[in-house]
Amino acid sequence: MDEHIVTSYDQELKTIVRRISEMGGQAESMVERAVNALTRSDASLAHAVIADDAVLDAAQRELDERAILTIAKRQPMAQDLREIIGAIRISSDLERIGDLGKNIAKRVVAVTEHQQPLQLVRGIEHLSDLALEQLKDVLDSYATRDHRRAESIRARDEEIDAMYTSIFRELLTYMMEDPRNISACTHLLFSAKNIERIGDHATNIAETIYYIKTGQQMGIDRPKDDRTSTMTLPVENGGKPASDIGA
């Protein structure tokens, strides 16, 4: 950010940026621990993640109030205004990422009551690794205001979508093979969807970074490879086709 003549104004902007970095670290930690709790059947860790969501919610409210006060007091223009508006948008995405981590953690107890196929657990971990890498990279991009890197991050979201589609297909297969798998696989399916959504929010942040730096919006069309809305259960014994199943 550019330096300003009024030192207190600079400090206000730096505080907002620092709060975003802190929220990013909290959101990243929540997701990582939630997935660890899910794959390791760790209920106590899951409860800790759920409790941390209130901290992230409070941080978002505090940042929004600080940003609005800065706008009212300083009446910023051009990039300064984009910095503050961008921070409000990013804080909202980070708060939603925390919510998604909490939602994963809330499913841990239900999933641990059933045996989880090892291949699916590994798939969830891999999907989580992709989403967390996306989140870490976009937070680094925000710290440096690297809008070119932000563009490349958005383009990588397609890889997360493709991995999610693959997991979705495997979960359907396990549910069809044995109805006893339906309960656990349903919870895993929602967890995988939450992780895929985390990638979407990281993409939102990348778009905001691009806007802060350039003053322009990225193109409307995002690369997407989530094909779950077109998948159907197979027809057996001449029955009627099953309804489309989407996440």
Spatial shape = elongated
Number of domains: 1
Q: How would a crystallographer describe the biggest sheet? A: none
Strands, count: 0
Percent of residues in helical segments? over 70%
What is the subunit organization of this protein?
single chain
CATH top-level class = Mainly Alpha
Whole-angstrom Rg: 20 Å
Give the structural class.
mainly alpha
In whole angstroms, the N-to-C terminal distance is 40 Å
CATH topology: Methane Monooxygenase Hydroxylase, Chain G, domain 1
Unreliable stretches (pLDDT < 50, length at least 5) are 237-247
How would you explain this protein's 3D organization?
- The protein is mainly alpha-helical.
- The chain has one domain: Up-down Bundle (Methane Monooxygenase Hydroxylase, Chain G, domain 1).
- The protein is 77% helix and 0% strand.
- It is built from eight helices and no strands.
- The protein has helices at 7-40, 43-74, 78-106, 108-112, 118-144, 147-155, 157-177, 182-214.
- The longest helix is centred in the first third of the chain and has 34 residues, at 7-40.
- The radius of gyration is 20 Å and the shape is elongated.
- The two termini are 40 Å apart.
- Residues 237-247 have low confidence and may be disordered.
Annotate the secondary structure layout:
Layout: H1 7-40, H2 43-74, H3 78-106, H4 108-112, H5 118-144, H6 147-155, H7 157-177, H8 182-214
How is this structure best summarized?
With 247 residues, the chain is an all-alpha fold. The protein has helices at 7-40, 43-74, 78-106, 108-112, 118-144, 147-155, 157-177, 182-214.
